[in-house]
Amino acid sequence: MGPGKAATKTTVFLTAEWLHLVLLNYTVPAGLLEPLVPGGTELDLLRGEAYVSVVGFMFANTRVRGMAIPFHRTFEEVNLRFYVKRLVDGEERHAVTFIRELVPRLAIMMAARFVYNEPYSRVSMSHSLELNSRRKRAEYRWGNGAAGAGAVVGDGLGRMEIPAADSDEAFMTQRHWGYTTQRDGSTVEYHVAHPVWRVAQIERGTLDGNTERAFGREFAAMLAGPPASAFFADGSAVTVHDPVRLP
After folding, report:
1. 118 contacts 101 by C-beta, under 8 angstroms
2. Cα angle vertex 62, ends 59, 65, to 5°?
3. What is the pLDDT of residues 129-142, one digit of tens each?
4. Residue 70 CB contacts under 8 Å (≥ 6 apart), including other chains
5. Following DSSP, what letter does each residue of 103-134 receive, concatenated?
6. Helices (DSSP H) in 117-180: which residue ranges?
7. What is the distance between the alpha carbons of residues 109 and 188, in angstroms, rounded to a whole number?
8. 203-206 contacts: CB < 8 A, separation 24 or more?
């Protein structure tokens, strides 16, 4: 379970499995992210550099308030996120903040917007997983037609193992908190509990297609080149708790 002294005091909003994650990680100017940092948090830097990650994965066995929503249990998600932290009673909470989240299910999009004010958009999506072959591969696609379509691709996955605590992989994946700016400018915090994920290096990680429509012009320019790093995480069951508004 993720760290967090206050996490057990909040109720559970969502349970699911986040599986077969492809993470493409890009360095960006800190100044690009500073206006997006939720109040009460600060950028979490890796070796002095700010990162964004494009993440594709499978949402499986999804339940909201303990209830399964028909046709909404298993689906793809692709998101663009960056990394923040907050010090609480001597505990440093390492977290993510989302810039854009793409899902194909309307009810999930509406619930996340209403409860968390998360920047979800609904688009058509599909995926391809070849994890039992000799050359393992995972791909998550969004959109229809050449003008709006894109894909996150991880081709050639290495050996799965638990990452070292001080590794880049641990920095990107061992995140047990989320922070989101609300419409009135305040910030909510929520706890995400899951075990440590195994990770593997990706030989060739690519972001294909139209990223401007998905993530905006400024970020599309930052995502145009090859990622600084790319890796795969096996994922696990997760528990997402209700948001708590910061003072």
Report:
1. yes
2. 145
3. 999 878 899 999 99
4. none
5. ES-HHHHHHHHHHH---EEE--EEEEEE-SSS
6. 145-148, 168-173
7. 18
8. 203/155, 203/156, 203/157, 203/158, 204/153, 204/154, 204/155, 204/156, 204/230, 205/22, 205/24, 205/153, 205/154, 205/155, 205/230, 205/231, 206/24, 206/151, 206/153, 206/155
> And the tokens for 22?
């492809």
Beta strands in 29-49 (DSSP E): 42-43
Beta strand pairing call for 150-157 and 137-142:
antiparallel
Reading the block at residue 222, the tokens are 């930052």
CA distances from 60 to 16, 91, 167 (A): 6, 31, 28
As a CATH number, domain 7-245 is 2.40.400.10
Sign, Cα dihedral of 236, 237, 243, 247: negative
Torsion of CA 29, 55, 91, 9, to 10 degrees: 140
- How far is residue 169's CA from residue 173's CA, in Å, rounded to a whole number? 6
pLDDT in tens, 107-165: 778 878 888 888 989 999 999 999 987 889 999 999 987 667 999 999 999 999 999 99
Determine the straight-line distance between the first and last CA of the chain, rounded to whole angstroms. 26
Question: Residues 12-64: pLDDT tens digits?
Answer: 999 999 999 999 999 999 999 999 999 999 999 999 999 999 999 999 998 88
Distance of CA 47 to the CA centre of its chain: 21
- CB neighbours of 247 closer than 8 A, spacing ≥ 6? none
Q: And the tokens for 126?
A: 């599909």
